[in-house]
From TrEMBL:
Coiled-coil intervals, chain numbering: none
TM spans (from-to): 20-48, 60-81, 87-112, 124-146, 172-199, 211-230, 250-269
Keyword Membrane among record annotations: yes
Organism: Trichodelitschia bisporula
Superkingdom of origin organism: Eukaryota
Keywords for this protein: Membrane, Transmembrane, Transmembrane helix
Name of the featured protein: Uncharacterized protein
InterPro entries the UniProt entry points to: Elsinochrome_Biosynth-Asso
Length: 314
């Protein structure tokens, strides 16, 4: 069926998509985000009290963060590839899942910032993945805003926002546009502050930034999770009529994302048994050299540009 035909024929209902909005998929994102925020808070608190290196917590958090950011990029990419078949309902859910992904890797960055600073490969890889996630999230935001502006029929594919004329503006247009712009601006601010924090050479305000940043990211994650729960067929009331209830059914495809949450536990077992080693974190204010006139926290610059230097406490 051609694109013009797809946008001219308005179906009575839409197909469900358990791969996007299934109960297991949604729960895996929500649980991962919740555990990551909790682990981040535990690590930051342990650093404030200086009573534990929290190696196991750090390893689990890093695993959750890597898993979530890659999954978030993957599901957003699939959504864009399927623009000619995916309806705005599923498209919006993917956007909210990307917000959960942002909250997860943002919280991990705040808690593990010293680990990323002392390894330029991890630092630049993290920045690259954050940038890809930001670009995809902003692309989704633009399409969601266009969908609201044109009041697209809920059973039409999201790609039709480029092809059909706008209908009468809905009464909630202003609030929706402001909310969409606010979410996009928030994503950009989180990315910019995250990159700045990774490269910051100052220690004075680190703890304040970590605590305040974690509070903001927690609010973002809670807001996205509530929207997903209320809007999805699996847990709430969808905004479009769906042909079946596949998104509520528990199949192997829904159990698999939840089973993958157990993978970090394997690393924990290896850590406990001594089969895997994780370098001890460098705490703020802790000297890494024998002489106290050396810098307190190592910062490994990119070898392709920049000079080797240490982070000097300000």
């Amino acid at each position: 069926m051609s694109n013009s035909t797809i946008c001219s024929l308005v179906p009575k209902d839409a197909s469900s998509d358990a791969g996007v909005a299934g109960a297991g998929v949604l729960l895996s994102f929500i649980i991962t985000a919740a555990l990551s925020v909790l682990l981040s808070a535990t690590i930051i608190l342990s650093e404030l009290r200086r009573n534990s290196e929290a190696k196991i917590y750090r390893k689990i958090l890093l695993s959750f963060s890597d898993q979530q950011i890659l999954t978030g990029i993957g599901i957003q990419t699939v959504g864009l590839v399927k623009m000619d078949s995916i309806v705005p309902y599923h498209f919006f859910i993917i956007w909210m899942l990307s917000m959960l992904s942002t909250a997860t890797h943002g919280a991990a960055l705040l808690a593990l910032v010293n680990d990323f600073r002392r390894d330029w490969v991890l630092r630049w890889l993290r920045q690259f993945l954050m940038f890809i996630n930001l670009v995809l999230s902003c692309t989704y935001g633009v399409l969601v805003a266009m969908n609201v502006t044109k009041d697209l029929q809920p059973t039409l594919p999201i790609s039709c926002v480029w092809k059909i004329p706008a209908r009468k503006a809905p009464s909630y247009l202003g609030i929706s546009i402001v909310g969409t712009i606010a979410v996009m601006a928030g994503s950009c601010i989180v990315f910019a502050l995250g990159v700045w924090f990774l490269h910051s050479r100052r220690e004075r305000w680190n703890k304040i930034i970590q605590v305040a940043g974690l509070a903001v990211l927690t609010a973002i994650g809670v807001g996205a999770a509530i929207r997903v729960i209320l809007l999805s067929q699996a847990f709430g009331s969808p905004s479009v009529s769906l042909r079946d209830t596949n998104e509520k059914d528990w199949s192997f495809g829904q159990l698999l994302p939840l089973l993958l949450l157990l993978l970090p536990l394997m690393s924990v077992i290896e850590l406990i048994r001594g089969e895997m080693r994780v370098p001890a974190p460098v705490m703020e204010g802790e000297y890494i050299g024998e002489e106290k006139n050396q810098a307190r926290l190592s910062f490994e610059p990119n070898p392709f540009w920049g000079s080797r230097s240490n982070l000097v406490a300000k």
